[in-house]
Design goal:
It is a single chain. About 25% of the residues lie in helices and about 30% in strands. By secondary structure, it is α/β, with parallel strands linked by helices. The strands form two sheets. An eight-stranded mixed beta sheet has the order 6-7-5-4-8-9-11-10. It has a three-stranded antiparallel beta sheet with strand order 1-2-3, with no helix packed on it.
Length: about 220
């Protein structure tokens, strides 16, 4: 499927998929969105120091890079699902490392590291990439945070079903949570129906709200 590199409003790249009429990130700012949704309201909102993260949609590798660069005093095991990895031609042209003042080799390592194998990126960050759909993903490990970064419900409806969010609920540890840019009412009602406590938070630039879904109970 064809992908085009575009520039978003904060100067960071994203990818546009003409066949879907969809971008990988907000046109108001890829990095701004990632920092707000997945860093501020994701990893920085969890009290655990040793933390397991599951990302639904490795995509450009941006959320992975932002987590690595904003790890602070935590130690992270990062599992990310991506059935359709982008090509070297595309990821080698992305400007995320420049705008985050991170090392270009580190960003490339996130993409070139082996799939289906645990890779130590740093003393505090272990990466496991798998070319698996969430529907087929099996894990004995439970997660503290799920970064839910699939395409929109209009574009990728199969990723926003009650079955998917039941699976997400079961993949989380007690007091774990899911964060996503999406704030649609039908989506929030689905989360509540499978047992999540749904919290509305201020959204990233260009969006009024985003969602955090907490897993409560035993």
């Amino acid at each position: 499927m064809k992908k085009e590199i575009i520039l978003t409003k904060d100067g960071s790249h994203s990818l546009f998929v003409p066949n879907l009429n969809e971008t990988y990130h907000s046109i108001h700012g890829s990095i701004s969105e990632g920092l707000h949704v997945f860093i501020k309201n994701g990893i920085h909102s969890h009290s655990k120091k040793n933390i397991n993260i599951l990302e639904i949609g490795f995509g450009t590798g941006l959320n992975t890079l932002l987590t690595l660069e904003n790890i602070q005093d935590k130690k992270v095991h990062y599992t990310t699902l991506e059935p359709f990895p982008i090509s070297e031609y595309i990821y080698s042209k992305l400007n995320f490392h420049t705008l985050t003042n991170s090392d270009s080799d580190t960003f490339l390592e996130l993409h070139t590291s082996d799939w289906e194998k645990e890779v130590s990126i740093s003393e505090k960050f272990t990466l496991f990439k798998t070319q698996t759909r969430l529907q087929n993903f099996i894990s004995e490990k439970k997660f503290d945070i799920i970064y839910f970064d699939a395409f929109s419900p209009e574009t990728q409806s199969e990723m926003w079903t009650i079955e998917v969010f039941k699976k997400c609920f079961n993949l989380l540890n007690k007091d774990g949570f899911l964060v996503t840019y999406c704030a649609k009412g039908i989506f929030r009602r689905t989360l509540k129906s499978v047992g999540f406590e749904v919290i509305s938070l201020d959204g990233p630039p260009g969006k009024r709200q985003m969602t955090r879904a907490n897993k409560k109970g035993s």
